[in-house]
Amino acid sequence: MVASSVSPTLDGGSITSITIPCKQTPVSTDTDSVTTPTTDEKETLDTENNKSQPLKRKKKPVPGKGFSKSRQGCYNCKRRRVKCSEAKPECCSCNRMGLICVYPEAPRPTLKRSHNTVSSNSKSCVNLNHLQFYHHFLLEAYPPAPHGAEPYEFLANAILGLSAQHLTLFHGADYSIQALDLRVAAINGLNEALSQPCLTTIDADARYAAIIALTYQSAYMPDAMMEFITMLRGWMFIQTKVVPDLEMSMFRNFTREAFVGSMKQHIARHLTNKNAILLDDYLASLKVVRVLCQGTAEIKYLSALERLGRLAKQSPIEAFLEIAPCYGLTNKMTEEEFKAFTEPSNSCARVLLSHFIMLNYALEQHFLSPQPKHFAFCKEISTAWVIRPFCWVIIMGALWECVCFILRTLGAKDQQNSTYVTLSTLLFLLAPLWINAFAYMVISRLIYFLHPKQTALSIPARWLAKGFVAADIISFIVQAAGGALMADQHSTENASLGRKVYMAGVGVQLFFVLIFVVVVTSFYRQVSFNIRTGTLKNRNRWIRPLILVIFLVLILIVERITFRLIEFSGGVSSSNEILRHEAYQLYLDALPMLLALASLNLVHPGIVLKGPGSSFPSSKIHWWKGRSAAFEPITLQSFDRREHSSAE
User: Fold this and answer.
1) How far apart are alpha carbons 558 and 564 in whole angstroms?
2) pTM for this entry
3) pLDDT tens readout for residues 393-435
4) What domains does the chain contain, in order, with CATH numbers?
């Protein structure tokens, strides 16, 4: 008798289990005595089993099923969204369907990157801008680079970053963010490459070419004077310790002797200006700077500049040929001397570097002016490294005051010409607004530079500058419109309307100046507290004097505004006693502004606002900060082959 039971399966079918009862027989050690079913019983069992099981439908095979997932499949399988067997030369799907099987190109081998290194692949992936940068590098920005540089990603990034910075400087397009991204990727890759010994001469040449490109890029970057010096030091390190044999390198002619020889040939072909260079003021300025030099590195640097200046005065050609070794003066310093020399608080070092840059620029203009295409960056970068950009505001205020009194002098000689009176009146009324705006900008930058949170009264320093300068511009426009109407001597109505408009503009200016006085007071109290407790990192002794000078300037501006409100409240007529006597305007308007200008020159903001963080970054860079790898802290690490071999 046969018993059967049905049990469900996972796929919805069923399995029939069959139980066959049989008689028990005595167990024997003889194998032949074991009871087994006969052939007829087997056939009967198979027949009953087939009847009890339902018929299963045979499924069609799914194309690509059973193959592991891969991103290297052919284009046909990618388009059909099926798995590819990756069989070469044709996959199974293309062979079955009669299609032409085409695989994507295999990726090129790249330098293996460590997981500890900051990844920047997403920032430096190839795009159309990179093709433009490389094309520009081949045409114009071309420091020598070795052949076979494709496997060295850090070298490619350095070349593209150099080209992007060169385009930004000369062609009006802003690729500064891309240049910084590529620069970060190049420095990270070069640091990783320097942590490994050079296996071939090409490896050493690639590292050498990368530091050359990074150094030239820093020479094209505004406000990167100290970074340029640091890269020069890295250049010297790689040349002396990483390149095993300079004679076997592709840069064997990249030496001082080769530079002097090429410059001699260039001067012989293009020299047209044989006049001497006037350097008396340059040497006199160095004598004044000598009193400020205290460290050994500063004194040695000053002595080298004096020797070069005297040589340039006697023989400009010889001085020009000696200028290249002077770039390496900082490379001869010890680590302690170099660190002290490049400190942001070392103002003497920056003065010395400014003298060197100016002398270098004068010599290059004297001998290389026929080639402005390749040497034009000297003027732009030298100016950007030395001059503070926001000081043009106070220069405009002083210039307008001077032009005003020049026109008044000319008007006194030619009293029939009303043009002198009109222009001098407008300049006299509007010039103090430049001084007011400069006070706003200085205090906002001081807050950004010194305050830990870069805020005052919970207002960010950038918005303080934007808000108060915008208010000053509005006041400027209103006062200019009112002054233009008051200058119309043919219409009494226009003069009266202009007086009211001008007084409204002066009132707006006074309102915002008083609010700004509150901001400055709060900032000064916090700075004084931080100085007393020792929590202020910047130890410059001119911080509080500069803030007090800004206080004085604001008080003088309030006094001048009050005088103008009293003056025009009496109307624009001959009965107004203040308008009839010019002494009131000279003592209560011109003299306070002269004192303000003199105070800002005695305690100049540049004494305090120097070094990293002393200026607002551009709006584009401020937006990208935190979104781009270009703003991560980067350093060029060092590596000594002897230390590596001893460690192994």
Assistant:
1) 10
2) 0.47
3) 888 888 888 988 888 888 777 766 677 777 887 888 888 889 9
4) 1-8+16-21+38-54 (no CATH), 68-105 (4.10.240.10), 127-254 (no CATH), 260-388 (no CATH), 390-614 (no CATH)
